Amino acid sequence: MFLTHLKIKNWRNFKSAGVYLGERTFITGPNACGKSNFLDVFRFMRDIAKQPGGGLQKAVSDRGGLSKIRCLSARQDPVVELEFHFSDSLKGQVEWKYIIGIQYEGKGRQRTLISKEEVYKNDKQILKRPDQKDIKDDWRLTQTHLEQINSNKEFRDIYDYFMDVRYFHMIPQLLRHPETFFNTNVPSDEDAFGFHFLEGIIETSAKIREARLKKIEKALVTAVPQLKDLAINRDARGVPHLEALYEHWRPKAGKQKEDQFSDGTLRLIGFLWSILESSSLLLLEEPELSLNTFIVRKIPSLIASILNSKKKKQQLIISTHSPDLFSDKGIGGEEILLFKPGKEGTEIVRSSEVKEIRALLESGFAPSEVVIPYTDPERYVQRTLFEIPWGNSE
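Now predict its structure.
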């Protein structure tokens, strides 16, 4: 199942936005425009669905309460609303729709309550809340049906989808030295930053593990050409370690372990493994960090190589503001979402829908030459060669 369309209302930076999603979606924009907050939409839904230890109230509380989630530009509109459309294929007809709206109670206990929860299958409504039971007992509105196993049976496909959402943003220092950090008791399925990354690899069945490491090694050839024989083994204490041979001026220089790998190499291995491991939506935040210019330019093709090696298609959303990453002319304008902050919140525009951008991309310009100027401060954009009015979209 694929998420093909998302509508956002009053979520953090976004007063109102609607986007279509493909196999790869790159999101870019100035600092503080809402890229991380956009990714958090999907993490929020996973936190609601999560069993055990999830649910609506915890998901809201973990984000500082509804007042921190609700868009400041919303003014008199108190409702935060998210709508998701799902299909069996990326270009298929919409099969499922899930809509959730939440707001403060407005008086008394100031609870976060569901203002709307609706589910449609093939345009037939199968859930509509609040219902009569909710009206009689409004405590029911503190929980979604999505998070309740005994209530989501009819739309379990949606629950399964959100449960499988993964966010990945490896911090190499956590992988090398997890014992030096405090919060190491992170469940393996929530390990976004690399605490238990190596343990997760070595616990994968040997056949699958070796096949994935071979694919990663093959994909890394253009980025880290000296690396070969990538493997993972436990030491005498049972601690897992990545190992690889590096072609070196010293003959028989021996294998290196992850504590000798560069930050960039670890991040590359990490996000390539996460793509191979993921079966649903994968969120990658700024994968260019710690990588040199040459390697960053290869990220889109590395991702494409891994995706093409998988039998089952999956979806990625990648946040970036790297001109080097966007130098890849294989990135289509339909794959790039531009975030432009304004007085009434952040606007999201698909770059292929801006006439002048589409024309320049079709003429052979790279996205870095055409799209990146939009991510600079407004006064800088006005001085660039590619000053394009936002109003000229079709």
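The longest strand covers residues 2-11.
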